[in-house]
Structure formats: C-alpha cells, structure tokens
C-alpha cells in the first residue's frame, strides 16, 4: 500500500517549507563571542607574564647594546653596531666560545649515553623502582654552588682526591687547574653529575610510552635484550634523544656556576683556559671593563647562537615527525601479525615457533570468538 507524504505549505518568503529569518539576540551574540574569545583570555596570563619577564628584558638588552653604556655613568651616546664589532674583535671572546663548546662536548656526549643507559635499567622490573628513580634525581636537587665547591676540591692539583687515586695506579698527577683540556674534563664532570639523572628520567618517560606489543613480538622472533634496545627502544625515542641533545647544548652554552666556583677568582684561571662565554659576559659587565653596552652585545650574540641551534632542532624534529610515524605503524602492524601467528600456532597445538623464531612461544592470553549482536541476527532472518 502506497503512502503519500503531505505536501509542505508554501510561505511568503520563497520555497516550500522556508521559515522567516530570525534575528540573533544579544545573549546569542555574547555566547558566540564567549566561545571565540574565552580560550585566548584563559592563556593570556602566560603571555603577559612572558612579555614582562622575557620580551621586555630582551628588547631592553638590544637597546643597551646599541649605546655606550657604562656601569657608573649610565646611558651614553648612540654607537650602533660598534659594540658588536668591538666584541667580535676581541680574541678572548672567541677563546671563551671555544671553551664553551669544548666543555659541552665533554659533558653532553657522556651525559646522553649514561642517561639512556640508566633509563634502560630503570625501565626493567626492579624492586623499589620508585626509590631508584628518585635516587637518580638527588644530584639535580643539590645546589650547583655546592657541587662546584666539592668537585673543585676533588680535582685540586696538589691535594685532590682524584690525583691521589691516580697515584695509587701509577699515573702522574694531572694539572686540573693548569692544563686546558683537563680543566674542561673536570668542569664537564660537574655538569654530568648534576644533569645525568634528570635526563635519565626524561628518557625513562619516553621508554615507558613505547608500545609493549613491539617487545612481545621481538621476543617471539627471538631477539635479545641488546637487539631490542637498539632496534626498538632507540628508534622509538629518537625524538626525545634529539630534544635532550639540544637542551643540553643550550644549557652548555649558558654554563656559569660550575666555572665561577671552580677556582677562587672565578674568571677561568690565570690564562682564561676554562672561561666560558657567560663568564666572559660577567667580566665585561662587572669586571675590569664595566661596559654594559658590550656585555649586552655579548648577550645578544649568544642569544642568536641559541636561536640557530633551536632552528636546527626544529628542522630535525620536523624530519623525525614526518618519517617516524610510518615506521611506528609498520612496526606495530608487524607486531600484531606476529602475535596473531603465535596465537594461531598455539590454538592449533603446533610447537614450531612463528615467523622463523628460534625460541619457544610464550603463553599468550586466550582469544574469544566475536559475539553476534541481536541486530545481526534479525538482519539474517
């Protein structure tokens, strides 16, 4: 039997069923503005605080760097880029920059290796895991001045504990305060002592986010712990590795406390063998020169160097972001396929390992057949 739908009435404003336009009330307009504007109001305190504590000091430093500005006399004449030219012409600036990068190399490379190793150990099933995870963070809590004073005594030239221990094994005492490379190693050890545990917790958080099904599939394929670490863990946390390397680079460019407290004078030794760029900035501003204009120029040059490293970090991160998920999807798809093959082999009673594995198949959780809903049964009828 055919059913006819009722015809729609024709209104004055045009097509059948058309309704007259309604005016938007004030409350509705306020509601729309609330939806559009309120998110920006919620995050505005951060940007206001950042403008006061970040942008304004940066802009004011750039303003000071363009003037002849002394510590006692204050603002002087406009000099343009003369302060920058004077800083770049000083050999001590380039020496401090080389010292900064040298200390960074001696600190960042062992630091990342130790941190990722400690994180891999903490990622295992350990007893009192919280205790060990908090224990690696204790050096980060210690004040940098205290760490510098302690390590300064340990690396003393005449009565230091390190030279005494080296004497027991037949090694001649090392001039930790006279040799340039040795001083860089001593200062880098302070940085490693303080920041290794902190970076290890960052690596640990990244490792715990790795899907466990990848490790289960690798166990079925017969991979050992070392193969799992280099084939699964490291590729999955490579973005975190890049992040830690870049942040340690930025921190190494701003190193000050360890160098300042390494010797009594705190200016990088008699020949400035371990003077970093920030210590050089301090000496220009409040040392012998007392020239805030040149010190501001040094600060801006260091800021530009950090910006360049940040751009490199952005490019590397973008490349990882475009190539990483594909590999992750393929790895997860392979893990699901291996687990499915193992379940099928276990269900069929086969003792042969799946996917060419050389080890026995571990027990897997039982799988249940899919249930049929009432709607599907009615459709079949």
From TrEMBL:
<keyword id="KW-0813">Transport</keyword>
<feature type="transmembrane region" description="Helical">
    <location>
        <begin position="236"/>
        <end position="256"/>
    </location>
</feature>
<feature type="domain" description="ABC transmembrane type-1">
    <location>
        <begin position="97"/>
        <end position="313"/>
    </location>
</feature>
<dbReference type="InterPro" id="IPR051393">
    <property type="entry name" value="ABC_transporter_permease"/>
</dbReference>
<feature type="transmembrane region" description="Helical">
    <location>
        <begin position="195"/>
        <end position="215"/>
    </location>
</feature>
<protein>
    <submittedName>
        <fullName>Cellobiose ABC transporter membrane protein</fullName>
    </submittedName>
</protein>
<feature type="transmembrane region" description="Helical">
    <location>
        <begin position="40"/>
        <end position="63"/>
    </location>
</feature>
<dbReference type="InterPro" id="IPR000515">
    <property type="entry name" value="MetI-like"/>
</dbReference>
<dbReference type="Pfam" id="PF00528">
    <property type="entry name" value="BPD_transp_1"/>
</dbReference>
<keyword id="KW-0812">Transmembrane</keyword>
<comment type="similarity">
    <text>Belongs to the binding-protein-dependent transport system permease family.</text>
</comment>
<dbReference type="GO" id="GO:0055085">
    <property type="term" value="P:transmembrane transport"/>
</dbReference>
<feature type="region of interest" description="Disordered">
    <location>
        <begin position="343"/>
        <end position="381"/>
    </location>
</feature>
<feature type="transmembrane region" description="Helical">
    <location>
        <begin position="295"/>
        <end position="316"/>
    </location>
</feature>
<feature type="transmembrane region" description="Helical">
    <location>
        <begin position="101"/>
        <end position="122"/>
    </location>
</feature>
<dbReference type="InterPro" id="IPR035906">
    <property type="entry name" value="MetI-like_sf"/>
</dbReference>
<keyword id="KW-1133">Transmembrane helix</keyword>
<dbReference type="GO" id="GO:0005886">
    <property type="term" value="C:plasma membrane"/>
</dbReference>
<keyword id="KW-1003">Cell membrane</keyword>
<feature type="transmembrane region" description="Helical">
    <location>
        <begin position="134"/>
        <end position="156"/>
    </location>
</feature>
<keyword id="KW-0472">Membrane</keyword>
<feature type="region of interest" description="Disordered">
    <location>
        <begin position="1"/>
        <end position="23"/>
    </location>
</feature>
<feature type="compositionally biased region" description="Low complexity">
    <location>
        <begin position="347"/>
        <end position="361"/>
    </location>
</feature>
